[in-house]
Amino acid sequence: MSLESLRAEVFQANLELVRRGLVLYTFGNASGRDPASDLIVIKPSGVPYEELKPADLVVVDLEGRVVEGALRPSSDLPTHLALYRAFPTVCGVVHTHSRAATAFAQACREIPCLGTTHADYFHGPVPVTRMLSAQEVASDYEVNTGALIVSTLAGTDPLARPGILVAGHGPFTWGRSAAEAAHHAVIVEELAEMAWRTLTLNPTAASLPSYLIDKHFFRKHGPGAYYGQPGREES
Predict the structure, then answer these.
(1) Which of 63, 78, 114, 224 could be disulfide-bonded to 142 (CB atoms 3.0-4.6 Å)?
(2) 233 within a domain of the structure (yes/no)
(3) Catalytic residue among 25, 61, 157, 227
(4) Distance CA 133, CA 100 (A)
């Protein structure tokens, strides 16, 4: 992918967060990585979405050094970099403070897999991290946030659970592109809203049985998938 194409995709991923009502003011950010060069395009820090232009996006390398751009990259860049370094299949990362998902994060609760809509996208619950310690926050907050996400996902295929809730903070999502990461941010918010309403109606609602989770997840993902049309991205 050319840098120009990646910049355009990341710009649209950031705008998708606005279109779907997942961000307010300067909340949130999206980035994308070119797997050939390991260059990353990310939203600049503190720039309102209504003022954002493709030329404002910042290009950095995998160590966070600015390669192109006059503005400072998002303050969440070190967290994005931790995910890119840990998971070679991840080429897009999104962070929002969307309302329902952030409520689960503030409650330090995972989003349970209560129905098949959830299982279509996540092979199990949307996990939640532990709370960062005072030392982790004081020493290198964003780096340690990334390390916490990576350690929480240990042993997990990141594309089977393409999002996480950082306790007390909010959701991070990812995918094989910036567009897919933004799509997953929309899905996580919808799953959080559904779970919240389900648990309000029935506080003892149980997780979906594993056989039903497996059926719905693997019919859309993996070598045996049969949902949708070959060669066409699902929506």
Answers:
(1) 78
(2) no
(3) 227
(4) 24
137 part of a folded domain: yes
* 99-146 tens-digit pLDDT: 999 999 999 999 999 999 999 999 999 999 999 999 999 999 999 999
pTM over 0.85: yes
Q: Does residue 223 sit within a domain?
A: no
Cβ(196)–Cβ(100) below 8 Å: yes
226 is an active site residue: no
**How far apart are the C-alpha atoms of 153 and 97, rounded to whole Å?**
20
**Rounded Cα distance, 207 and 185, in Å:** 21
Residue 158 placed within a domain: yes
Residue that the structure tokens 């559904």 belong to: 194
The question of whether 141 is a catalytic residue gets the answer: no
Range of the domain at 10: 3-218
User: Which of the residues 49, 120, 141, 214 is marked catalytic?
Assistant: 120
C-beta of residue 170 within 8 angstroms of C-beta of residue 108? no
